[in-house]
Structures are given as structure tokens and as C-alpha cells.
Amino acid sequence: MTETVDAPGIAQRLAQLRQELPPSVKLIAVSKTRSAEHVRAAYAAGQRDFGENRVQEAMEKQAQLTDLTDITWHLIGQLQSNKARKAVETFDWIHSVDSLKLADRINRISKECDRCPKICFQVKHRSDPSKTGLEPQDLLTAIPRICEYHHIQVEGLMTIPPLSSSDANALKIFQENRELAELITTEAKRLGCTNMAMKQLSMGMSGDYSLAVQAGSTLVRLGQTIFGARG
Ligand SMILES: *Cc1c(COP(=O)(O)O)cnc(C)c1O
Predict the structure, then answer these.
(1) Which of 83, 81, 93 has the alpha carbon at shortest distance from 55?
(2) What pLDDT, on the 0 to 100 scale, is given for residue 195?
């Protein structure tokens, strides 16, 4: 990648976002398709959380950034189960756990490699052929099974509204996601399950983050707002 990095622009947009976002919201800079130098520019401006959607791309970038030891890496893209081991080794967070089978596998692998990654379940609140995700009811039913995961930290729920959603519908989906997190937390507590407080809501991208924040998002994942339009 030879494109030049507009470091002052990146720093300025990060500063703007820090002013705009409530303190309860963590900003994840989505660096997918950007070079390691983009990550460096954001890091120099104080950014420490970065999101990537592919394991291989993240590993290549990390290899160029070994001097930046306090970055928290978030996997936000779909994870194939054959890449789960690499993902556990590469990322601190996995936001896109879209099946119980994948969660089982991550839990098992994490035990073997002595890591305890933080995860969010990706929930699909509307039918959407372009997205994977668990149905709300599947998650509620699976509480006892999730309760048995001792090698992952279940942090919360991630969701992405269908691309064509109106603002009103996107807001509704974000609110449903928050309500589902509250319902699961209550139900898990009732069942004596102590590792399932769904405190984090990973919601909001460049096009819809203000709606997500309005609905209670705690983790926004922004790429284009920080780094400029993606080709
Ligand atoms: C690409 C991506 C983002 C960031 O999108 P922007 O439009 O660049 O803000 C957030 N979440 C997921 C899951 C993504 O794949």
C-alpha cells in the first residue's frame, strides 16, 4: 500500500469524535483495508482500540506494529471456524461470534492456549441474507450452555442493521438489541449464571453510530469517519 497517510486529518477526526461521543462509549478505529501506517497515525493521536475484519490481514499488520504493545485488537468480521485458533491468538476481543458452535470452539481453543478472549455474540434481529448471526430466541435458550464457558469472557451483544434500513428501523433494531441484552442478563442471573452480564453493546458504524449511541451503544466501530472513504 503506497497511499499517503493524512495523519493531521486522522488526529483531527479522532479528537472530534472524542468530544462528540459520551464517555460511556468506547471508540474502535476500524483499520481494515488500511495500512499499518494508518494505525500508527491514529495511535500517535491517542487511539488504542483497533478493529479488523480478517484474521490474516490483522496478523500482517500486527507484524509491522510490534513496537506498539498496548493496542487492543478487536475482530469484527465473520470468523470461519478453521481460523478460530489464529483469531484467539491474534485478537483480544471477538465481536462476531455468530453461532454457538463457534463459541464452543473458541472456548475450547482458549483453554488449550491459556487465553481468555472477550466475546460478543452477533445477533440478527431481522432476516438479512448478507449477514450471519444468532436469533434472539436461540441465545435465550442457550443460556445454560453459555454459562459453562469458562475460558471466554462473555461481554455482550453485537448487531448490524440490514444495509437498507431507514434511520427509524436501525434505531429500533439497536433498541431491541439493548433490550435483549438486559433480558439475557436478568434471565442468566435468575439461573445462577454469573458469567453472563451482557454489559457491552457493540453497535454503530460510520453511517449509523449516532442512532446506536442514542440506543445505548458502548462500543462503536468506525472506519470511514476516521480514515476517510474506503475505495
Ligand atoms: C467495516 C466495518 C465497520 C466500519 O465501517 P465504516 O463504514 O468504515 O465505519 C464496522 N463494523 C463492521 C462489522 C465492519 O465490517
Answers:
(1) 83
(2) 87
pLDDT of the residue at 113: 85
| Domains delineated in the chain | 7-227 (3.20.20.10)
- Alpha helix ranges (H) inside 2-46: 7-20, 36-44
What are the 10-residue block averages of pLDDT along the chain, 231 residues in total? Answer: 84 98 98 98 98 98 98 98 96 98 97 92 94 96 96 97 96 98 97 93 98 98 97 75
Ligand 1 atom nearest 224 alpha carbon:
8
- Closest approach atom of ligand 1 to CA 227: 8
Q: Which cell numbers hold the place of 115?
A: 487465553
pLDDT at 102: 98
Cβ-based burial of 52 (10 A; exposed 0-12, middle 13-18, buried ≥19): buried
Distance CA 23, CA 25 (A): 5
Best mutation site among 47, 54, 75, 76 for ligand 1 pocket (most ligand atoms within 8 Å of CB)? 76
**85 Cα to the center of ligand 1, angstroms:** 23
The three grid cell numbers given for residue 139, joined into one nine-digit string:
441465545
Which atom of ligand 1 is nearest the CA belonging to 225? 9
pTM listed for this prediction: 0.97
Q: Measured at the alpha carbon of residue 142, what is the angle toward residues 84 and 92, in degrees to the nearest 5?
A: 30
Helix (H) or strand (E) holding 183: helix 167-190
